[in-house]
């Protein structure tokens, strides 16, 4: 698999597209690190990473969470190893803030995620807000 680093990841739509690509049953790309500064978006990245770890064996507890019969905290308590991996993949960090996240720290985290891979992909999408129509008021016609 080709590792993917997803910067400015938002809730992870671009990364999910890469993760979904298959050649037969073989996955082509795998997100190894997503970097996002928004806490809510990072939580979505974390949950998606958690889900992907199960591949074809998603536990019933996940679907109990989706139905609202189980809290997210309880779901995560049942699968600590998968949560730890999801926490490694979904990083809450602000790129472009050298005081808090110096380049050396970012490079270190990327190197760790790539595990020596020579071929990898860096993706980073534009902010969704610029393209979304959610919450926008319709334009008033000119008279």
Written description of the protein model:
With 143 residues, the chain is α/β, with parallel strands linked by helices. It has a domain at 2-53 and 86-130. 41% of the residues lie in helices and 17% in strands. It has helices at 13-20, 39-52, 60-66, 72-78, 80-89, 103-114; strands at residues 2-7, 22-23, 26-27, 29-36, 90-92, 121-124. A hairpin with a 2-residue loop joins strand 2 and strand 3. The chain is globular.
Indicate the topology.
Layout lengths: L1 E6 L5 H8 L1 E2 L2 E2 L1 E8 L2 H14 L7 H7 L5 H7 L1 H10 E3 L10 H12 L6 E4 L19
Parallel strand pairs: 1-4, 1-6, 4-5
Antiparallel strand pairs: 2-3
Helix pairs in contact: 2-5
Structural class designation: alpha/beta
Largest sheet: 4 strands, parallel
Report strand %: 15-25%
**End-to-end separation:** 57 Å
Structural Rg: 18 Å
Large-scale geometry: globular
- The mean pLDDT is 91
DSSP E strands, number: 6
- Oligomeric status of the shown chains? single chain
Q: Would you identify the regions where 5 or more consecutive residues have pLDDT less than 50?
A: none
- Spell out the helices and strands N to C: EHEEEHHHHEHE
Q: Supply the number of helical segments.
A: 6
List keywords for this structure.
single chain; 143 residues; two-stranded antiparallel sheet; 6 helices; 41% helix; globular
């Amino acid at each position: 698999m080709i590792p993917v680093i997803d910067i400015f990841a938002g809730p992870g739509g671009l990364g999910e597209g890469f993760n979904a690509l298959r050649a037969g049953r073989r996955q082509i790309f795998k997100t190894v690190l997503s970097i996002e500064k928004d806490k809510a978006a990072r939580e979505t990245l974390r949950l998606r990473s958690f889900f992907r770890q199960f591949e074809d064996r998603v536990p019933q507890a996940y679907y109990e969470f989706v139905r609202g019969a189980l809290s997210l905290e309880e779901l995560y308590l049942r699968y600590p190893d998968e949560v730890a991996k999801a926490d490694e993949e979904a990083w809450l960090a602000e790129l472009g803030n050298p005081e808090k996240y110096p380049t050396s720290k970012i490079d270190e985290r990327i190197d760790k995620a790539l595990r020596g891979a020579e071929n990898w992909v860096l993706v980073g999408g534009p902010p969704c807000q610029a393209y979304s129509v959610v919450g926008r008021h319709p334009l008033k016609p000119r008279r």
